[in-house]
Design goal:
Strand order of the largest sheet: 2-1-11-10-7-8
Order of helices and strands: HHHEEEEEEEEEEE
Number of helices: 3
Oligomer: single chain
Structural class: alpha+beta
Largest sheet: 6 strands, antiparallel
Helix content: 25-40%
Shape: elongated
Distance between the termini: 78 Å
């Protein structure tokens, strides 16, 4: 083997070794410090303007819009985080599915060691009731201290626990 070939192989091996070290350090760093939680409004550039852009984009696609669910009279109007790192966060219930988890595209991004990336979802049924469903999470989703195994209707004010985070439906 020539000296040039041996030197190129050594440099290639050294580059692969450094790449491995850098990736390992990034994985350890993300495990130690977690993911960054950003506010939805800050990411999209504002409330009303972002909604108007999203509606214009959806209308331009040519797909028919799904009909809005009718709110039940006396039913819940908002989802409130009552315990955990996001305490005080409120999401208006407007007939859309709400996803909960560590994934950045979740409606409520949970920065919790006990939450899965796609942990649970909350959605309305045809009768206007809200349903919570565990999405196969490792640590489970609890409704009033009972672990969920099937999609279950949520009573008004009943605590939904995902790790250290507690969420409630309120008027």
């Amino acid at each position: 083997m020539s000296e040039l070939t041996l030197t190129v192989m050594r440099l290639g091996f050294l580059a692969v070794l450094w790449l491995f070290v850098i990736v390992a350090v990034q994985v350890i760093r993300s495990d130690l410090f977690g993911t960054r939680v950003t506010q939805r409004g800050a990411r999209r550039g504002g409330g009303a303007e972002a909604r108007a852009q999203a509606q214009a984009a959806a209308g331009a696609g040519g797909r028919p819009q799904p009909p809005q669910q009718r709110q039940r009279r006396g039913g819940p109007t908002k989802l409130v985080v009552s315990e955990g790192t996001l305490t005080g966060t409120t999401v208006a219930l407007q007939g859309q599915t709400i996803t909960l988890g560590r994934a950045h595209d979740s409606t409520i991004v949970l920065d919790d060691d006990y939450a899965s990336s796609r942990h649970a979802r909350i959605y309305p049924d045809r009768d206007g009731n809200w349903i919570v469903e565990d999405l196969g999470s490792t640590n489970g989703t609890y409704l009033d201290r009972a672990r969920l195994t099937v999609a279950t209707p949520i009573p008004l004010g009943a605590p939904i626990r995902i790790g250290k985070t507690v969420i409630e439906l309120r008027k």
